[in-house]
Amino acid sequence: VQLQAFGGGLVEPGGSLRLSCAASGFTLDYYVVAWFRQAPGKEREGVSYISINGLRTYYLDSVKGRFTISRDNYRNSVYLQMDSLNPEDAAVYYCAIDRRLHSNIESYWNRPDEYDLWGQGTQVTVSS
């Protein structure tokens, strides 16, 4: 039972990346999924969240209009499309799920403690 985040890399400012979060050993359909990021010396911060049915999404203010979260339950995956990247977006990005099924998680979607299974992280570097 694990999550795997991949798709990071080096991109120039203004560029795009698409991160993927794949589940193995279980079905992702039953869980909300969130993306977090952590830059060196900074706390882990919630970037985006998607509900089980994909109809509700939330974003960190600084990425609104540039990042898009989506899910493909057929492929057991969640994606984070990141456009117009800037150096402040550079970090290790993690996907996470809440297996405890907190009923009020949408009120606290950006709190790391709400999630109990994490992928290993994928590095995003934004530099010219």
Give the topology:
Layout: E1 2-6, E2 9-11, E3 17-24, E4 33-38, E5 45-50, E6 57-59, E7 67-72, E8 77-82, E9 91-97, E10 117-118, E11 122-126
Parallel strand pairs: 2-11
Antiparallel strand pairs: 1-3, 3-8, 4-5, 4-9, 5-6, 7-8, 9-10, 9-11
Gist of the model:
Helix content is about 0%, strand content about 45%.
Structural overview:
With 128 residues, this protein is an all-beta fold. It is built from no helices and 11 strands. Strands 2, 4, 5, 6, 9, 10 and 11 form a 7-stranded mixed beta sheet that branches. A 4-stranded antiparallel beta sheet has the order 1-3-8-7, with no helix packed on it. The radius of gyration is 14 Å and the shape is globular. The mean pLDDT is 95.
Distance from N terminus to C terminus (CA atoms, Å) equals: 38 Å
Global outline: globular
Rg from alpha-carbon coordinates? 14 Å
Structural class category: mainly beta
Count the strands?
Answer: 11
Which sheet architecture does the biggest sheet show? 7 strands, mixed
Helix percent reads under 10%
Number of helical regions: 0
* Low-confidence runs of at least 5 consecutive residues: none
The run of helices and strands is EEEEEEEEEEE
Instruction: Write down the overall mean pLDDT.
Output: 95
Bin the strand percentage. Answer: 35-45%
